[in-house]
Amino acid sequence: MLQTLLRGRVLTFHREPAGAEDTDAYSYIEDGALLLEAGQIVATGGYDDIAPRATGAEVIDHRPHLLMPGFIDTHIHFPQLQIVASWGSQLLEWLNGYTFPAEAQYGDAQHARAMAGRFCDLLTDHGTTTAVAFCSSHKGSAEALFSEAHSRDMRMIAGKTLMDRNAPDEVLDTPQSGYDDSVALIEAWHGQGRLSYAITPRFAITSTPAQMETAQALAARYPHCYVQTHLSENQAEIAYTAELYPQARDYLDVYEAYGLLGPRTLLGHAIHLRPREIATIAETQSHPVFCPTSNLFLGSGLFDDAGLRAQGITNAIATDIGAGTSFSMLQTLNEGYKILQLQDQKLHALRAFHWITRGNAHVLGLGDRIGSLDAGTEADIVVLDSRATPAMALRMDRAETLAEELFALQMMGDDRAIVETYVAGNPQKKGRQ
Ligand code: GUN
Ligand code: ZN
């Protein structure tokens, strides 16, 4: 069997680091190597230990760059890749003015297929090897994304958006069609290769109670699927939700009443929460998703990472393209650091890189497959150049520790710092040159 040996500085996490001194939380090997075979990492260690086991392997020398697990983006909108940086509004006006018209185009399966290729290219160009994606409400948009990811052997979690009101007709489904299309997609794609399905009610405003019932039926029928939605991003959204669901105790209660909470549920944004909602998120082990560049772009508010963690909640982190302004998980960490600074909270570089790799993998229940460089896991790997730009190189001249290097990458890095991205052992950048 064909083997590949990657040589470079290897960094992978075993648990969340408490800080720079918590060296037991990670392995860092200065002259390290990863042996890949059939899409898996079969050995990780020092180059001198691994190389003798790899006679006949193709050797790719990435020194002096860093080899890390591929990044995981836990909340992104596939049909919004062309509306990043749409000017001037907050959430509800932004949805009506830019988002729904852009998503309407995905009723054209040819457009969806063309964009699916661009979307996967953009992810891997930015070092992201797994994404959890909202598709449009059209079945064909989810088919296009699943098919594209499958052809690349890329781990992808996605779902057709359920939305049956408060949007233009071109992006609306019905409770019945939404249910039927979701069932057909789950049966066709969930568990195929590296694909998983996320049941995707967009948010309370765009789903009638009748549609929420069908989402509940889907979640009950397919408990191995994920559930993704949006929660408490913006005050106008919260007020409108309260009007539409007058019997709900709070926003979260809409999802709770329809049995949509649990360890496989991702709640995008979750910024303006009441104590009861926080307690219920903790109790149900659901996961808030912090979307820093989006929250700043739409002026939505400041995510209380420390407050939620103090209640035993595990947060994910994500780009939320197209309200998010960058596909880069490094830029996401950069803005995340600043949002926490505004609240006198800290995002240490080691915790930051744990978060976008092993941390997000564990949120998805996939820690045994992705998010680390352990032998036996899938060969999704990113190669990082911390001197990618002149400004980064100058900063690195003054960096003395791994933590300093990582912090420079976190604050200054973007797709220019991504030398290569391996998906199931296959180089994505080299492959396209
Ligand atoms: N809430 C409902 N839909 C969306 C969306 O597409 N983007 C964001 N940021 N929030 C939402
Ligand atoms: Zn979103």
TrEMBL record:
Which top-level enzyme class is recorded in the Swiss-Prot or TrEMBL entry? hydrolase
Alphabetic keyword roster: Hydrolase, Metal-binding, Zinc
Q: What is its EC number?
A: 3.5.4.3
Write out the pathway annotation from the protein's UniProt entry: Purine metabolism; guanine degradation; xanthine from guanine: step 1/1
**Any keyword Metal-binding?**
yes
Catalytic activity annotation:
guanine + H2O + H(+) = xanthine + NH4(+)
**SUPFAM superfamilies the record matches:** Composite domain of metallo-dependent hydrolases (SSF51338), Metallo-dependent hydrolases (SSF51556)
Keyword Cytoplasm attributed:
no
Q: Which GO terms describe its molecular function?
A: guanine deaminase activity
* Domain Amidohydrolase-related: from-to ranges: 67-426
**Source superkingdom:** Bacteria
Required co-factor(s) are: Zn(2+)
User: NCBIfam families, per this entry?
Assistant: guan_deamin, PRK09228.1
- Chain's role: Catalyzes the hydrolytic deamination of guanine, producing xanthine and ammonia.
Provide the protein name.
Guanine deaminase
What organism does the record attribute this protein to? Paracoccus onchidii
